[in-house]
Amino acid sequence: MTVRFGLLGAGRIGKVHAKAVASNPDAVLVAVADAFVSAAEDLAAPYGAEVRSIEHIETSKDIDAVVICTPTDTHADLIERFARAGKAIFCEKPIDLDVKRVRECLKVAKDADATLMVGFNRRFDPHFAAVRKAIDEGAIGEVEMVTIISRDPGAPPVDYIKRSGGIFRDMTIHDFDMARFLLGEEPVRVSANAAVLVDKAIGQAGDFDSVSVILQTASGKQAIISNSRRATYGYDQRIEVHGSKGMVAAENQRPVSIELANATGYTRPPLHDFFMTRYTEAYANEIAAFIDAMTKGKKAEPSGADGLAALVLADAAVKSVKEGRAIEL
Amino acid sequence: MTVRFGLLGAGRIGKVHAKAVASNPDAVLVAVADAFVSAAEDLAAPYGAEVRSIEHIETSKDIDAVVICTPTDTHADLIERFARAGKAIFCEKPIDLDVKRVRECLKVAKDADATLMVGFNRRFDPHFAAVRKAIDEGAIGEVEMVTIISRDPGAPPVDYIKRSGGIFRDMTIHDFDMARFLLGEEPVRVSANAAVLVDKAIGQAGDFDSVSVILQTASGKQAIISNSRRATYGYDQRIEVHGSKGMVAAENQRPVSIELANATGYTRPPLHDFFMTRYTEAYANEIAAFIDAMTKGKKAEPSGADGLAALVLADAAVKSVKEGRAIEL
Amino acid sequence: MTVRFGLLGAGRIGKVHAKAVASNPDAVLVAVADAFVSAAEDLAAPYGAEVRSIEHIETSKDIDAVVICTPTDTHADLIERFARAGKAIFCEKPIDLDVKRVRECLKVAKDADATLMVGFNRRFDPHFAAVRKAIDEGAIGEVEMVTIISRDPGAPPVDYIKRSGGIFRDMTIHDFDMARFLLGEEPVRVSANAAVLVDKAIGQAGDFDSVSVILQTASGKQAIISNSRRATYGYDQRIEVHGSKGMVAAENQRPVSIELANATGYTRPPLHDFFMTRYTEAYANEIAAFIDAMTKGKKAEPSGADGLAALVLADAAVKSVKEGRAIEL
Amino acid sequence: MTVRFGLLGAGRIGKVHAKAVASNPDAVLVAVADAFVSAAEDLAAPYGAEVRSIEHIETSKDIDAVVICTPTDTHADLIERFARAGKAIFCEKPIDLDVKRVRECLKVAKDADATLMVGFNRRFDPHFAAVRKAIDEGAIGEVEMVTIISRDPGAPPVDYIKRSGGIFRDMTIHDFDMARFLLGEEPVRVSANAAVLVDKAIGQAGDFDSVSVILQTASGKQAIISNSRRATYGYDQRIEVHGSKGMVAAENQRPVSIELANATGYTRPPLHDFFMTRYTEAYANEIAAFIDAMTKGKKAEPSGADGLAALVLADAAVKSVKEGRAIEL
Question: Are strands A65-68 and A143-151 parallel, antiparallel or unpaired?
Fold first, then answer.
């Protein structure tokens, strides 16, 4: 069975998903919608897809699934509409920046019995997935301590920051999901520290750019997260899980693996400079997993509940910083 | 301009090139030919290409270029036919196992003014290409010593060995090309040693499975090549270039970059297990370079002359082993 | 000038310092004292040193400096006595487990104008020292985030745990000192989490074996510390400092640097299995620095104040765990 | 039993061995001889050793063993004298630059039943020794291909070159010994290439500075050696052994293991810049092995025969270059 896709939102991340859909042998990109028709046209053309309005896609019989890549504040509404329209839904994170709204939305999706998957792409990175697989196979025994270091090459524009919900909901949220994915237990306690070290304008917008978080589960397992909006050496994405029998870690990725040696020392090139090149395979695997959920009865994961859980942790981190204490969930 | 391709030969390497052509935004796969029509059909279908005979492709006005992936002993004839037919030609290595035949064939191609490129895919590997780029930029000064270690995960079937022209013409030939690519000077002297250490049946077929070669240029630059038909840890592909100001090396590639630590030590997974996964990007870049040669007036490299030069080195290595002496070219 | 040493305490760490003193060209080991005379004799003999009582060393004119390696609860008294006796003092950490007692002791040392250095050996590890040097030279710009991962190969006996002052004062204290050494600013805020994951007996003794700490300075610089009393792969000692212009990290150390590759993958041996082999050079450099402080007028660092500051952080961590909040200093 | 040593030759390498002897708990340095008495005095004093003439040491009853560190052309004579004097002998490589003279000398030593060990220090490097141990334990199955890359940070003075016997006898000889140590079979065939790429003055002195060698054993096992008198990034010392079941390699060593990351990439410091810092542990282990041979009845290895065998390979390499052919032994 070939899954027929409609894509909502022809921006940067929309392009990534369009390519993933088009390259998948079990999928076809049928239609693209965007508020800017010319953007939709530019994206649709090379894949032989049509430009349609969101309303049109909603009622299109030749569309089985949608990928939602529109601005964040439209996600929850679109999930509800397409759930009711009987389409399978892949939604870029987050579902919404407000926990209450997410809960409502998930209820609608559940009532409609919709297939809903949330775009925590990192779970599908082959290296991170291999870390999880090693854990599942017992290679490190019982998980004890998770370390996640995640740094962006550079800070986004302050305009973006203002609409982002803040660093915990925009950036750390990926790490909250990763921590949950690796800990194997729900965190019940969140201690967060935050500061502005990279760009004062971020602080003036009420946000932070450098944060540290400790999560702890009921049995005492701990995850540490270190985030910065700056990394001169590229997109720094490391995870490490320490357990009773050993440790497993995913190494950083670089586009070119050479080493130059001279009187200065031994130098390897910088890491990937952007999430789209770093996570190319992850995006392809993610869409493949979504298709598998639709066609092979596999569970759609990360689910809406996963999206909610990560947001709850982000909210707790915000509160922890504000109140100077650990937040119990 | 979109280049319209015909593919000759629907076997293993034919599939690799079909995918590279189909994925290239500047190319379209129009037709596939194979002695086994069903193989041609299976390959053509997913790309919306037609099945045609070789003769048909030869006269097809809607075909600009061919990719020759047929058995080795047909390469030279096909190059000549398609050169005369005015098509651009990408031919898998080798052009022929016989130097004299290669020379004749190259003359025909030259007389027809054909664009001809030979499939030494490794030049297009991003890591190896970056090594060459570092040399070209002067990062290591004057090249002095090249080290190439190339080991296959396992030996091919003896039937393949018998038709292969022997390890120097079949396997080492890639390293001869790489040595030429990196030395920046033609080797004038070949010293080779060879033995059967992996599989006696290879020896019974008159071939070797473990060889060491030293090449030397007129100015004294040296390249060392170490080949084995066995490597339990995967497809071992390393190059290193030492120069007056430094050294640059390409690291081995593995599909998954994790590290597991326990009482046994720190373990990273094996390398790629096959040339097709190892050189995925190289195959795509290679076809892109061929298209650039056709559409942007870039030089078609590696050329037929490069194919010939590597074969001459292979012949010299065979002779060096037989006669127990360095062969001067 | 050759510095003449008395060594107090002939136990495990006493042996380490005896060797460091005896190997230093500017020092000589004159006398050893221990409650167990035979232990003192065994240690003194190979170095041609005498066995003397502590009282005797106190009044020995041929002794310039003492190394205090006796049990923790004697440190403060001995510092005071030898400060008054006009000897230079190198004291193993900690000065005392009680902040008030440390303050009193430091006052006595100060009033006596004694040279006092505290044994935070890690500052003298060549790799960690090189990290600090890189920071001092501006290689990473302004320090922003420090990450310290420190794991012991195995938990000490519960009897030791009971006398240790708890994991924060016994183990993390080294990391608190390292964080101060690298941050370049005093932490003003401590958030700690702690659990028992390795050995229930440790919990029954009222201590923890797995802890995570965030330190933050007034300007917002952060340090993360991850500790475990277990690491199957050896003595895990990593530091990494992220700054505005780059990052610098010290790699783990192993006694043997080979790599074995086979169908399982690429395996390097485990790390050092103990602090004494891991920090051999650090112990030698530490004594050399103490001698330099005496003979070349260099500052005796880490000082008593450094010992106090690390203890204050440990106390704050204990409190943070107990009260579930960040402790402001 | 404590072994009492006399040291002949107080130059650079003499100092290395003096330190190794003095640091060994089972040895004592009794006397030092040198043509320059002041050099002998400077070396003897810190260890409390006496200065004696060679003749005096020869007849000293309080000397069990000698370490010969005098100029090469005196080695054979001294071995003979001290063998006849009943002393155990550790001689720096080479025994002599002339194979015939070495054979005579070894006969004298054998007739005197002398303990004789030759200073191929690299066998005692912990990393190289671990490679050999892995082979002995069967970790890589049957040895097939050995790769040795050995590059000096810089060329020695031309005066040294002139007395050195040429690069094969002076530098490659270490690699010939290492190849024998790792192959587990005697090479029967030598193919060598040589050039002057580093320093024309070396060529004018009749020597080479950049060489490549292939050794082959009777069963077809091969060793490749790559040597250069130049390496801008430090003292490059790598060995790798490929076998039927896997591969084992020793990594290069650097004094400081940190990594600095910035927009340029990830940089680790250069390697050791000299053999004395690189092989500190090897020199200590080597003397320990010599002492074990004397006191515990262990075999004195590498033996005089090992010294001879490496020289024979060096002579064959010289001949191979001269005659342009493989030399069969």
Answer: unpaired
Give strand pairing partners of B252. Answer: none
CA–CA distance, D136 with D131 (Å, rounded to integer): 9
| Residue C270, min C-alpha distance to chain B (Å) | 4
Q: What is the rounded distance in angstroms from the CA atom of residue D187 to the CA atom of residue C258?
A: 25
Q: How many CB atoms lie within 10 A of CB A12?
A: 11
* Measured torsion, CA atoms of residues D178, D179, D184, D185, in degrees rounded to the nearest 10: -140
Closest CA to D186 of D42, D310, D47, D61: D310
The reply to whether B232 touches chain C by the CB within 8 Å rule is yes
Give one DSSP letter per residue of C156-216, joined into a string.
PPHHHHHHTT-HHHHTHHHHHHHHHHHHSS-EEEEEEEEE--S-HHHHHTT--SEEEEEEE
* Longest CA–CA separation in chain C, Å: 66
Contact C245/D at CB under 8 A: yes
Question: How much is the average pLDDT of A5-20?
Answer: 96
Interface touch D197/B247, C-beta < 8 Å: no
Q: What number is the ipTM of this complex?
A: 0.95
How far is residue A156's CA from residue A198's CA, in Å, rounded to a whole number? 11
* pLDDT tens-place string over residues B108-164: 999 999 999 999 999 999 999 999 999 999 999 999 999 999 999 999 999 999 999
Please give the average per-residue pLDDT across B171-199, as a whole number: 98
CB A160 within 8 A of CB A295: no
pLDDT tens-digit series, residues B310-321: 999 999 999 999
pTM for the model stands at 0.96
Q: Find the CB nearest C326 among A142, A195, A325.
A: A325
- Phi and psi dihedrals of C242, rounded to 5? -105, 130
Handedness of CA C126, C132, C138, C142 (dihedral sign): positive
Flag if C250 and D260 touch (Cβ within 8 Å): no
Please determine, for residue A46, whether its predicted confidence score (pLDDT) is greater than 90.
no
Please report which helix (H) or strand (E) contains residue B5, including its range. strand B3-8
Q: Do D222 and B212 touch (CB under 8 A)?
A: yes
CATH 1.10.3720.10 fits B123-299+305-328, yes or no: no
- Closest residue on chain A to C245 (Cα): A232
Q: Which CATH class name applies to D123-299+304-328?
A: alpha beta
Coil, helix or strand at residue B281:
helix
- The type of residue at C224 is I
Residue C29's DSSP bridge partners are: C5
Provide the pairing of β-strand D187-195 with D210-217: antiparallel
Residue C259 to chain B, least CA–CA distance (Å): 9
Contacts of C268 in chain B (CB under 8 A): 265-267
**Phi, psi at C133, each rounded to 5°:** -60, -40
Name residues 251-290 of chain C within 8 A of B (Cβ). 261-270
C-alpha to C-alpha distance for A116 and B34, rounded to whole angstroms: 45
CA distance C177 to C175: 5
User: Distance (Å) from the C-alpha of residue C265 to the closest C-alpha of chain D?
Assistant: 9
Nearest beta carbon to residue C258 from set D251, D255, D263:
D251
- Yes or no, beta carbons of C145 and A212 under 8 Å apart: yes
Contact (Cβ atoms closer than 8 angstroms) between residue A167 and residue A293: no
Closest Cα in chain D to C252: D257
Task: Provide the residue ranges of all domains of chain B, joining segments of one domain with +.
Answer: 3-114, 123-299+305-328
Using CB atoms, pick whichever of C126, C247, C260 lies closest to residue D246. Answer: C260
Q: Could you tell me which of A194, D58, A28 has the C-alpha nearest to residue C216?
A: A194
Q: Which CATH number does A3-114 carry?
A: 3.40.50.720
In terms of DSSP bridges, do strands D258-262 and D222-228 run parallel, antiparallel, or are they unpaired? unpaired
Q: What residue in D sits closest to A236 (Cα-Cα)? A: D261
- State whether residue B134 sits within 8 Å of chain D by CB: no
